[in-house]
Design goal:
This protein has 14 helices and 22 strands. The chain is α/β, with parallel strands linked by helices. A 7-stranded mixed sheet has the order 14-15-16-13-12-18-19, with helices on both faces. β8, α6 and β9 (212-215) form a beta-alpha-beta unit. α2 runs antiparallel to α5 and α2 packs across α6. The longest helix has 21 residues, at 108-128. It is globular and about 75 Å long. The termini are far apart. The model has no long low-confidence stretch (mean pLDDT 97). Its EC number is 1.2.1.16. Pathway: Amino-acid degradation; 4-aminobutanoate degradation. One of its GO terms (biological process) is gamma-aminobutyric acid catabolic process.
Length: 498
């Protein structure tokens, strides 16, 4: 087994094993808890409350009670609190990174990047909060004047995944609070401690009680989801996770006609054309595919390489991956940590074996790493991939770079668009006309051109097709938490003339 020493937190009070409701740290009424495991060592990190429907309804009531006061604050007042929260997250980035690595497994360097990226959403939306504008609309009825104002939608239910324990929750809380909403957030059962630390920093930043509520559960996750979606008090649900769960939450939300935004599954194509800078394309593919060991919804899943450079690209790509170092996220020089749990490893392994059985060749990796632990899998490169392999139509969510050869632009665009999902897509080319053609032709919500990294608080994040709808981050992100009210003034008369 690997050597795995968790560094102590600089501020040990950031490690919270309760839920945050109405400004207080509390346990479930039942007293039940669940254990959270370190995916690298499989040792127990701690416990969190197993919240029920009753507990969640108390959190919803707290958010509802806090709403009138919070929505009555000015955008500038909300901005100051969000900015203070950002400052505290940056000051405590090392501790947040330690928690992320502890419960998620990603290397400390990656965890630190995530902690600062997560803080960036509070900075961004602190700047958006005072700039919520309506419109003055010329009326067609003489004497009428029409204006619109934007209002907070109300209490919001937020459900976040484990792969970015910090960034996924701040990307939702930031715009919700900026808009004047209050929230109940269900943090992931695999990684609850990062969200708890962020909530504690929010309390220190001056977030009023009841405005932010964080609930946890493992076996009761579905029950909490249904409580949020069926509640008449909750006016909006935002979810990041799998497409099947998104469909279920959407069905449940229909009974109360909620405003919803979903960021769901992906199966991102990464296309490298003959005219690309091969070295830069390799670098981009590696960063896109293997970031967080491939456990990102926007990571390259199908790497299409034009036949003229296929062999060169494959060789250079494999050499890069061969240089990875897998182990405990806290160890020096480690580039990749464990997957989140054994189920994730099993899925990766099944995709690799399926591809091999249908003619794919393993250039690098392809095996579990039992000497490190049950959740480790070798970073893998497969060549000779074909459309009939599982990986071509299913999201792997693991460290497998699968290389598909192609001949023509029209062929690869058709292949890229066969997926039911459409979150992100990438391609490398130095032909300006091709860049525009392909960028417009890809059926995805986000396109990376000559880059493998597209995440930025300033950039709209979201997909099309079965990848969901709505946008997070950017100037559009706050709109997901607002409604438009139209005000018509009648009998205003005709303009006076001298």
């Amino acid at each position: 087994m690997l050597s795995h020493v968790v560094p102590p937190l600089k501020d040990k009070s950031l490690f919270k094993q309760e839920c945050f409701v109405d400004g207080e740290w509390i346990q479930a009424k039942s007293g039940q808890t669940f254990e959270v495991q370190d995916p690298a060592s499989m040792k127990t990190i701690g416990t969190c409350p197993e919240f029920s429907k009753e507990d969640t309804e108390i959190a919803i009531a707290a958010a509802a009670a806090a709403l009138p006061s919070w929505r009555g604050t000015t955008g500038r007042q909300r901005a100051r609190i969000l900015r203070k929260w950002y400052d505290l997250m940056m000051e405590n980035a090392d501790d947040l990174a330690t928690l992320i690595t502890w419960e998620n497994g990603k290397p400390t360097a990656d965890a630190t990047v995530e902690a600062k990226y997560a803080a960036g959403f509070y900075e961004w939306f602190s700047e958006e909060a005072p700039r919520v504008y309506g419109d003055t609309i010329p009326a067609t009825v003489p004497g009428n004047r029409v204006v619109t104002i934007r209002e907070p939608v109300g209490v919001c239910g937020l459900i976040t995944p484990w792969n970015f324990p910090a960034a996924m929750i701040t990307r939702k809380i930031g715009p919700a609070l900026a808009a004047g909403c209050t929230i109940v957030a269900k943090s992931p059962g695999e990684t609850p401690f990062t969200a708890n630390a962020i909530a504690e920093l929010g309390k220190r930043a001056g977030v009023p009680k009841g405005v932010v509520n964080i609930v946890t559960a493992l076996k009761n996750t579905a029950e909490i989801g249904e409580t949020l979606t069926s509640s008449l008090t909750v006016k909006k649900v935002s979810f990041t996770g799998s497409t099947p769960v998104g469909k279920l939450l959407m069905k449940q939300s229909s009974s109360t006609l909620k405003k919803i935004s979903f960021e769901l599954g992906g199966n991102a194509p990464f296309i490298v054309f003959d005219d690309a800078d091969v070295d830069k394309a390799v670098e981009g593919a590696v960063s896109s595919k293997y970031r967080s060991s491939g456990q990102t919804c926007v990571c390259a899943n199908r790497i299409y390489v034009q036949k003229g450079i296929y062999d060169e690209f494959s060789k250079k790509f494999a050499e890069k991956v061969q240089g990875f170092k897998v182990g405990s996220g806290y160890a020096d020089g480690i580039t990749h940590g464990p997957l989140i749990h054994d189920r994730a490893v099993s899925k990766v392994e099944s995709h690799v074996k399926d591809a091999q059985s249908k003619g794919a060749e393993v250039l690098v990796g392809g095996q579990r790493m039992p000497d490190l632990g049950t959740n480790f899998f070798q970073p893998t490169v497969l060549t000779g991939m074909t459309a009939d392999m599982q990986l071509a139509s299913e999201e792997t969510f693991g460290p497998v770079g699968a290389l598909f050869p192609f001949d023509t632009e029209s062929e690869v665009v058709a292949l890229a668009n066969t997926a039911e999902v459409g979150l992100a897509g990438y391609f490398y080319s130095r032909d300006l006309q091709r860049v525009w053609r392909v960028a417009e032709a890809l059926e995805v919500g986000m396109v990376g051109v000559n880059t493998g990294l597209i995440s930025d608080p300033a950039s709209p994040f979201g997909g099309v097709k079965f990848s969901g709808f709505g946008r997070e981050g950017s100037k559009y992100g706050i709109e997901e938490y607002q409604t438009i009210k139209t005000i018509t003034f009648g009998g205003m008369g005709q303009p006076l003339h001298a």
